[in-house]
Structures are given as C-alpha cells and as structure tokens.
C-alpha cells in the first residue's frame, strides 16, 4: 500500500489532532506501533512539526471520522489522479551543468574510436542530441577546432559498464550482418573486461617485417666462389731491420 509523504510528521499530526489508535496510525504511515506511542509520550520525533494530511490532499475528513469511530478501520491514502499515469521521461539523460562543456569532447571520442555506434546510442549514453552528433561527425560543429577526444567514462558522463554494453551490442550486430572486420575494428568492439583478459601478443612493426629470421652469426657454410678470408695481421707485417739484403743491393749506386 502507498505511504503518505513525510510519514513521521503525518503521524505527529494524527496523534495530536485525532483519537485514532496507535495501531491504525502505524499501519497508515508505515511505522511500528511502539514508535507512534513514543511520539505520544514525547520520546520520539521531538521537535518535529505536524504535517496535516487533509490540507495536503492525503486524507479526507470522512476517512479520519470513520477510523475514529471504528478501531478496526484501516486508513486509506486519498487517490490523487494527478499522480497516476505518469511515465518515465524519455530522451537524453540529464547532464550536470559542470560537465556539459565536456560533452562535445566525449562525443568526438566516441565518434573517433567507436564509429560503429549509432547516433541514438551515443545520444542515450552521454545525454546529447542527434544534430550535435551529426555536426561532430561531419566536423561542422562551431567549436570543432578546439575539441579534444576524451573518454566519457573519464569525464564522468557514463559508466564503464554502460559503454561496454553498447559496444557488445555493436559487436553482435556486426557479427549478425556477416561483415569482415579488420583488427582495429575487432579491437574496438571488445569490451574493457574482455580486452583485459586477453593475452598480450607482441606485434612486429611493419618497418622490420621479414627480418625476424635475420642473424649475424656464421653458420659455418662458405660458398665456392667466395674468396678465403685474409688474416688482418698480414697487412701489418712490415720488413724487419729496414728491409732485406736484396733491397740494400738495389739501393747501392
């Protein structure tokens, strides 16, 4: 059963202004009977001002009269047509004023690193509109030159679990369509938890691709056409004592 607003203050008013039993008041406001008795004794809710349920459209005088005349009568909250039929408001989520200036940066991050996300998913995630997202995608936003891509989780605009959920939905949709994904796209479609569980595989840079089998060590093989290796010391073996006897004879006149 629905409970009245300001239950304790309503109980104070009913204790002070009616002869309804403590059990009836306790059942109406959702408190224990001993708490209502403590209010009557002044031990509970000291200094709390009574809240008039009649003036605030929560009880009728006829309902109070019926409860005072019959100790077994249960008080019923007055039906308020204005409170019925309310639906949850749909649209972009509320973003605090202090974080609204960071919202375009988060949209730029999502557009750049998760292009598979639809405008509706991004709008629901960070609380924005589709025209804003479209202008950032097309780089026609009035402040696009000053924007920097920043993770919306780091900005506090959404939770990591919410981002992972829409990324997983995008991955499932991509797989259902049967499209071929590149390594970069596959990495983007993986949630944070899944990426942390993966083994880190070293990747060879394209600049040195094909040199992984290159070795400077000599394998002992020598081609037939190759010339024999000359000892480096032989180039520095100079004649002793300034030359041989034949050289001296050649130098005599």
TrEMBL record:
Q: Where is this region: Disordered?
A: 81-100, 193-253
Compositionally biased, Acidic residues: which spans? Answer: 219-230, 244-253
Instruction: Note the superkingdom of the native organism.
Output: Bacteria
Q: Could you tell me which Pfam families the record lists for this protein?
A: TrcR
What's the protein called, per UniProt? Cytoplasmic protein
Which organism is this entry from? Answer: Ruegeria halocynthiae
């Amino acid at each position: 059963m629905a409970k009245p607003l300001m239950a304790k203050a309503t109980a104070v008013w009913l204790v002070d202004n009616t002869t309804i039993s403590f059990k009836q008041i306790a059942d109406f406001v959702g408190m224990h009977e001993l708490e209502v008795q403590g209010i009557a004794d002044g031990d509970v809710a000291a200094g709390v001002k009574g809240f008039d349920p009649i003036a605030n459209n929560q009880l009728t005088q006829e309902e109070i009269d019926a409860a005072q005349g019959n100790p077994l009568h249960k008080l019923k909250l007055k039906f308020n047509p204005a409170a019925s039929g309310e639906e949850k408001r749909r649209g972009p989520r509320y973003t605090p004023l202090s974080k609204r200036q960071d919202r375009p940066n988060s949209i730029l991050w999502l557009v750049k690193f998760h292009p598979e996300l639809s405008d509706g998913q991004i709008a629901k995630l960070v609380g924005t509109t589709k025209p804003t997202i479209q202008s950032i995608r097309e780089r026609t936003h009035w402040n696009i030159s000053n924007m920097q891509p920043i993770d919306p989780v780091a900005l506090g605009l959404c939770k990591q679990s919410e981002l992972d959920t829409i990324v997983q939905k995008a991955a499932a949709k991509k797989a259902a369509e049967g499209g071929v994904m590149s390594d970069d796209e596959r990495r983007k479609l993986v949630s944070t938890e899944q990426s942390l569980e993966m083994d880190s595989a070293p990747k060879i840079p394209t600049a040195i691709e094909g040199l992984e089998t290159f070795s400077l060590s000599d394998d002992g093989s020598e081609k037939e056409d190759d010339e024999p290796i000359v000892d480096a010391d032989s180039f520095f073996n100079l004649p002793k004592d300034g030359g041989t006897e034949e050289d001296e004879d050649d130098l005599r006149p």
